[in-house]
Amino acid sequence: MTENPAAMDAVAVWATDQVTALGVTDWPAYGSPAWRALLANDPRKAAAIFEAAERWRQHRAETDELDRLLTDDPEEWWRRVTAEANAEARRIMPALAKRPTAAEVRARARQQPPRPVTATPGWPPVAIPGRPGWYRHRGPNGEQTDLPTRTLEHAHR
Fold first, then answer.
1. pLDDT recorded at residue 4
2. 73 alpha-carbon distance from chain centroid
3. Using an 8 Å Cβ cutoff, are 145 and 139 in contact?
C-alpha cells in the first residue's frame, strides 16, 4: 500500500521547516570530508542530515512505487522507467534523422565500377591494371592505344 502523496508532502514541508529553523543557507554534503570536519553542534551538520534523510525518503518512496507498479501495472511501470530514455530519444531524433541509415552507409561503401583508364595529353602513358607491362598511350590524333611499352616512339619502330 502506498502512502498518501499529501502526507509525503507534509514530511517534506516539515523537513524544510527544520532546516529553515536552523538559520543556515548552505551546508556540505552529508558524510563528506567537509561535513565530518564540522563540530557536532554546528547547525550545518544537522541541515545536511535533514537533507540526506529527505532525499533518501524520496528515493525509497519512488523505488517502492516502482516495485508496486511492476506487480500491479507493468505497462505503467515500463512507461515510467523508460520515460527519460524516450525523452532523450525524442530530443536527438531530428539529428539522427539527418544521418544515413546503416543500409545507406553500406551502399555507399560498395565497390564502385572501375573508372576507365585514359591517357591524358601531356602526361606519361598509364599502366593498365590487370595487364602487367602494358600501357595506354594517347596517339597524335587523341586515340587511346594499348602497347607493351612505355614510349610511343618505340612502338612505331
1. 61
2. 31
3. yes
- Helix, strand and coil content of the chain, in percent to the nearest 5, comes to 55, 5, 40
Residue with cell 602494358: 134
The per-residue pLDDT for range 55-85, each reduced to its tens digit, is: 999 999 999 999 999 999 999 999 999 999 9
Cα–Cα distance, 83 to 85 (Å, whole number): 6
- pTM here is 0.53
Which strand (E) or helix (H) includes residue 25?
none
Residues of the chain with pLDDT under 70: 1-8, 152-157
* Residues 137, 145 contacting (CB under 8 angstroms): yes
* DSSP sequence for 41-83: T-HHHHHHHHHHHHHHHHHHHHHHHHHHHHHH-HHHHHHHHTH
Q: Which of 10, 3, 82, 18 is nearest to 52 (CA)?
A: 18
**What is the rounded CA–CA span in Å between residue 62 and residue 27?**
25
Are residues 125 and 150 in contact, defined by beta-carbon separation less than 8 angstroms?
A: yes
What pLDDT shows up at residue 3?
A: 57
